[in-house]
Write a sequence for this structure.
C-alpha cells in the first residue's frame, strides 16, 4: 500500500471519502502479497492493484458499494477458469480482501499514518478482520504512541505490543486474540501491516555505474546514499534527485553510519585503496547484500588482500563478487539491472534462472523475508549452497533441476568476462 499512500492522503486532505481494498491473506500462486492495496476515490479514480488485473473490476464495484454503505466487508476470490465468465484468479491462487471506507474526520489516524510513511517514520496499522470486535476497526501504532481502538482496552494493549514487535522489519502478519486481548485464543483476527522506514542502499564510488545503480535503487524503494572521497565526482547534479551524496573516504563513512539486516551495500570503487578497507568494515556489520564490482582478476586480487587483512572465510563468504547476475550486461544501465536482479533474487529466494526453464509456483510462499537473505543462490548458472555459519543455514539439496556444487568449486560451462565486471 505504500506506493498509493500519496494519492490516498490527497483524497483524505480534500475531505473525500474513499474505498480501500487491502489483501489480507493469500494462498497458492496468488499474484500479490498481503498488504497490496487498491482504492477507489472521488470521480471513480482508481489507484493500486490487488491481483494484477484478474479481479480489479469486481473490487472496483465492491469498493463503491462499501463507500455508499459505510459497512466494511471481507471478500475472497479463488480460482476461475480463464474461459469462464465468473470473476476469479486464473492463476489458481486465492486472495482475501478487506474492503472498508475511509472517511476524513471519522478515521483521524489515517492522515497521521500517511504522513509517517512519507517521513520514513515506522508505524504499524492494525485492522480487525473477524470476531466480536468491529470489522474494519483500526489502531495505528508507533514506537512511542498509538491511536484508535479495536473495541476493548485489553485487545488494544495486546495488539499494540505485537505491532511494535513487527516495526523493525516492516512485517505484515495476521494475529489471533480473545475479545479482551487474551493470548492463544482466536475470537478476534487482526491484520497487522507494518511500514518500516525504507531500507538503505549504500553505493560507494561516484562513477557512471553508480548513477545507474542509484536510479534503480530509488525505483525499488531504497533510500540511496552515494559516497566517494573525490569531490569532483561526488556532486549531487550527477545523481537522481533525492539521492544523498557524501564526500568522504568510503570506509570512514561506513564506520560512522548505521546499517541493518535490510541494508544493501554496492562497492563500485574498483580500486584496492578504497575497496579493501571498505569491505573489511562492510563484511563485519549487518547487511542484506554486499556486492563488489570488478573483473575476475580484480576479484581474485581483492580477495587475497582481504584475507591478508584478516577477513575470515565466513565473513568473506558474504561477498557477492563480481557483482550482479550474468545477463551479459555492458552499459551502466544494463549493469544496474544485473545488480538489481541479484538483490531481488537474494531478497525473495529466487534462483535467477529463466522462468521458462522452471516449473512449480512462480511466487512460492515462505521464502526468506525481505532483507533477511536466502540460503540459496545461483552463481554462473549453478546453484550454490552457502558455507556453514551463513545466516539461513545450508539447505539439504539444490532446487530441482539445478546442478549443485560446493562453495568455492569452479563453475563450468559459463562464459567468462560477463556479468557486472567493469572494463
Amino acid at each position: 500500500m505504500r506506493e498509493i499512500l500519496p494519492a490516498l492522503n490527497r483524497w483524505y486532505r480534500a475531505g473525500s471519502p474513499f474505498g480501500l481494498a487491502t489483501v489480507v491473506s493469500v494462498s497458492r500462486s496468488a499474484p500479490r502479497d498481503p498488504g497490496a492495496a487498491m482504492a477507489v476515490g472521488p470521480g471513480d479514480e482508481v489507484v493500486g492493484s490487488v491481483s494484477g488485473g484478474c479481479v480489479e473490476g469486481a473490487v472496483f464495484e465492491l469498493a463503491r458499494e462499501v463507500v455508499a454503505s459505510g459497512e466494511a466487508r471481507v471478500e475472497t476470490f479463488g480460482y476461475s477458469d480463464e474461459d469462464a465468465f465468473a470473476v476469479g484468479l486464473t492463476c489458481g491462487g486465492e486472495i482475501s480482501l478487506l474492503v472498508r471506507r475511509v472517511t476524513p474526520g471519522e478515521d483521524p489516524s489515517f492522515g497521521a499514518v500517511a504522513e509517517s510513511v512519507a517521513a520514513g517514520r515506522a508505524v504499524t496499522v492494525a485492522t480487525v478482520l473477524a470476531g466480536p470486535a468491529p470489522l474494519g476497526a483500526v489502531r495505528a501504532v508507533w514506537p512511542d504512541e498509538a491511536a484508535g481502538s479495536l473495541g476493548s482496552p485489553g485487545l488494544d494493549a495486546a495488539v499494540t505490543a505485537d505491532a511494535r514487535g513487527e516495526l523493525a522489519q516492516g512485517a505484515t502478519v495476521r494475529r489471533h486474540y480473545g475479545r479482551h486481548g487474551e493470548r492463544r485464543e482466536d475470537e478476534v483476527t487482526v491484520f497487522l501491516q507494518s511500514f518500516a522506514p525504507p531500507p538503505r542502499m549504500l553505493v560507494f564510488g561516484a562513477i557512471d555505474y553508480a548513477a545507474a545503480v542509484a536510479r534503480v535503487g530509488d525505483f525499488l524503494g531504497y533510500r540511496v546514499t552515494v559516497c566517494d572521497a573525490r569531490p569532483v565526482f561526488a556532486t549531487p547534479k550527477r545523481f537522481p534527485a533525492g539521492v544523498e551524496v557524501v564526500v568522504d573516504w568510503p570506509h570512514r563513512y561506513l564506520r560512522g553510519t548505521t546499517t541493518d539486516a535490510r541494508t544493501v551495500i554496492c562497492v563500485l570503487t574498483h580500486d584496492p585503496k578504497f575497496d579493501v578497507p571498505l569491505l573489511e568494515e562492510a563484511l563485519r556489520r549487518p547487511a542484506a547484500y554486499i556486492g563488489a564490482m570488478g573483473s575476475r582478476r580484480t576479484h581474485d586480487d581483492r580477495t587475497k588482500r582481504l584475507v591478508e587483512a584478516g577477513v575470515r572465510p565466513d565473513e568473506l563468504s558474504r561477498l557477492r563478487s563480481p557483482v550482479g547476475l550474468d545477463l551479459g550486461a555492458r552499459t551502466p544501465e544494463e549493469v544496474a539491472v544485473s545488480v538489481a536482479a541479484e538483490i531481488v533474487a537474494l531478497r525473495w529466494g529466487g534462483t535467477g534462472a529463466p522462468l521458462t526453464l522452471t516449473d512449480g509456483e512462480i511466487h512460492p510462499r515462505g521464502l526468506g523475508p525481505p532483507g533477511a537473505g536466502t540460503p540459496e543462490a545461483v552463481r554462473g548458472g549453478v546453484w550454490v549452497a552457502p558455507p556453514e555459519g551463513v545466516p539461513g543455514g545450508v539447505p539439504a539439496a539444490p532446487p530441482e533441476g539445478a546442478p549443485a556444487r560446493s562453495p568455492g568449486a569452479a563453475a563450468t560451462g559459463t562464459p567468462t568476462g560477463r556479468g557486472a565486471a567493469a572494463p
Residues 127 and 138 are 5 Å apart (CA to CA). Confidence is low (pLDDT under 50) at residues 81-90, 366-423. The chain has ten helices and 19 strands.
